[in-house]
């Protein structure tokens, strides 16, 4: 039996997430594309994707969306965490709340989304989580501390998650970056 795989893509209204959502759709996935921009969500709908308005920092909304997908399809097969704040800059020029928002978006949010989809993936015994960190994890660009610190923290989180899952019976391939 050929069961359609289900993908949840955050940041599907722009950039890498949008391109990934369309690519997965073209490859036969049932794609839930999430974001906030209503025009971009309409454009996803017009191309046959399941578009969902979602602020990824709203934990209850994340829980509700994953619960909806789990109820309708059993589990999310592929989670693509592409929502992000394209923020660069010198640390001293950022307010504490801007720095906090970057850690929220690039560490807490992907952690929360992974937490939400993992039970369904474990029950199914398979699943893929794709995160985007930054090439500069291996290099240093001066002035990018406010971006590199949170994305680096999450890249480390991914690594630990991948090792943990490789060691567990429900083996889940976690794609790093
Ligand atoms: N492009 C690069 O060179 C690069 C390099 C390193 C890492 N990355 C990472 O790769 C990912 C994608 O990058 P990109 O360049 O494609 O980004 P982008 O074009 O700026 O898109 C960012 C996406 O995040 C969504 N988003 C932001 N805040 C959100 C929120 N609170 N709730 C829901 N969605 C939210 C936006 O959707 P709405 O506007 O609809 O809310 C948008 O779809 C990001 O995590 C970025 O940090 C990118």
Radius of gyration: 16 Å
* pLDDT < 50 runs, ≥5 residues: none
As for the number of domains, it is 1
N-to-C series of helices and strands: EHEHEHEHEHE
Shape annotation: globular
What is the number of E strands?
A: 6
Q: What is the averaged pLDDT score?
A: 86
CATH topology: Rossmann fold
Given this structure, which CATH class is correct?
Alpha Beta
What are the defining features of this structure?
50% helix; Rossmann fold; alpha/beta; 177 residues; globular; binds NADP nicotinamide-adenine-dinucleotide phosphate; 6-stranded parallel beta sheet
Note down, in words, how this protein is organized.
The chain is α/β, with parallel strands linked by helices and 177 residues long. The protein has one domain (6-176): Rossmann fold. Helix content is 50%, strand content 14%. It contains five helices and six strands. It has helices at 15-26, 38-46, 59-73, 96-124, 145-167, and strands at residues 6-10, 30-35, 50-53, 78-81, 128-131, 174-175. A six-stranded parallel sheet has the order 3-2-1-4-5-6, sandwiched between helices. The relative contact order is 0.14. The model has no long low-confidence stretch (mean pLDDT 86). NADP nicotinamide-adenine-dinucleotide phosphate (NAP) is lined by residues 10-11, 13-17, 35-37, 40, 54-57, 82-84, 86, 132, 134.
Topology, pairings included?
Layout: E1 6-10, H1 15-26, E2 30-35, H2 38-46, E3 50-53, H3 59-73, E4 78-81, H4 96-124, E5 128-131, H5 145-167, E6 174-175
Parallel strand pairs: 1-2, 1-4, 2-3, 4-5, 5-6
Helix pairs in contact: 3-4, 4-5
The structure holds NADP nicotinamide-adenine-dinucleotide phosphate.
């Amino acid at each position: 039996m050929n069961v359609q795989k289900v993908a949840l893509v955050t940041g599907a209204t722009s950039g890498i997430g949008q391109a990934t959502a369309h690519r997965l759709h073209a490859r036969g996935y049932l794609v839930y594309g999430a974001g906030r921009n209503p025009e971009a969500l309409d454009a996803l709908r017009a191309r046959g994707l399941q578009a969902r308005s979602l602020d990824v920092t709203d934990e209850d909304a994340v829980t509700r969306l994953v619960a909806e997908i789990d109820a309708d399809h059993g589990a999310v097969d592929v989670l693509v965490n592409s929502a992000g704040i394209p923020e660069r800059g010198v640390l001293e020029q950022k307010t504490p709340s801007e720095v906090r928002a970057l850690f929220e978006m690039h560490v807490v949010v992907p952690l929360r989304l992974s937490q939400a989809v993992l039970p369904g993936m474990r029950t199914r015994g398979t699943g893929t989580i794709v995160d985007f960190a930054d090439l500069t994890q291996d290099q240093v660009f001066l002035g990018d501390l406010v971006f590199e610190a949170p994305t680096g923290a999450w890249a480390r989180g991914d690594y630990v998650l991948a090792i943990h899952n490789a060691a567990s019976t429900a083996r889940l391939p976690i794609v790093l970056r």
